[in-house]
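Risk register update: the risk of archive-format incompatibility is retired. Evidence:
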Amino acid sequence: MTDEMVISIGSEAIKTIIYLAGPLLLAAMCVGLMVSVLQAVTQINESTLTFIPKMVAVVLVLAVMSPWMLEVLKNYASEVLGGAGGIIR
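Archived output:
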């Protein structure tokens, strides 16, 4: 196993993690920003108000994006496991 192979596997793993977590984090960030603006406009100082909308948004995005996320994860796993013979040598 060469250094290039390790760097390649690591960079692909990081890209896959970003692809999988990105939509969920983006949805949580957008909902949190909207709730924060709503709290600022209405002067509601309730810190627990953001949790439920964020959880709902993340679950909805997960439900919608799960087929694509599973496809990305399957492609990464098949690429890594398919090349395992070359990695071991």
